[in-house]
Amino acid sequence: MASKERIQRLKEETRTKILDAAYKIVKEEGWQALSMRKIADEIEYTAPIIYEYFSNKEAILAELNKKGFLYLAKEMETARDKHQLPADQLEAMWMAYWNFAFKKKELYQVMFGVAMNCCTVQKTPEQEAPANLVREVIQQLMAGKNVPETEVCRKYFTFWSVIHGLISINLVNRGDSDEINKLVLKDAIGGIIRSITG
To answer: Which residues bind DNA (predicted)?
Structure first.
């Protein structure tokens, strides 16, 4: 029994090493530089060992994508939980989203295909988690207004379009100063919140 647990633990450690090495390569050289051979060299394993854990580079990208969405959802949830009012929660969540995009730029790029050719992946619960957090707060903000679910979705996509657009502009070709970008972001968030509560 103990040896089975040890073997499982070693497998998980190796899997984590592979993902960490992939992310390190990407941070240093960009997504275009990522290859199974480079990952193997980074952790001093042979390429066939890497294939025992991930069938191809797209499988590694899919796993990093999943981890990125889990991390983003956690950051947004933490930001939400610091506030009581739904409007304040929305602003805090979208600011956490913004901060994530620049703190974990490479993950954001693979999650949303910004400035890279990325694999297509099916929607997963991890990918839906950040959106679900925002939709719940939008519903709270609209409570008592008897609005259809399509209206909640429309408001979510309005938020996401504006914020993702600003992030993409800044990731691909750095926009104005961080201070101006954050003011634009806060103006956009405030405007959308007013359209919900007005």
So the answer is: 35-54
